[in-house]
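[recover] target loaded
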């Protein structure tokens, strides 16, 4: 479950979730790729022009 934090600076990503995405191994199967893309989609809310 991905969560978004509301702070005095506004809405931010959960640093633990971002670290988990950064530390993910390179996907080698279709299932792993779908999981990775789903995770990237989560932080995409905070990355302008991610596409």
């Amino acid at each position: 479950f991905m969560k978004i934090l509301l702070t005095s600076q506004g809405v931010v990503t959960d640093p633990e979730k971002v670290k988990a995405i950064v530390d993910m191994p390179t996907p080698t199967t279709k299932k792993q790729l779908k999981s990775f893309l789903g995770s990237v989609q989560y932080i995409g809310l905070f990355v302008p022009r991610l596409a």
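[recover] notes: The first strand starts at residue 4 and ends at 7.
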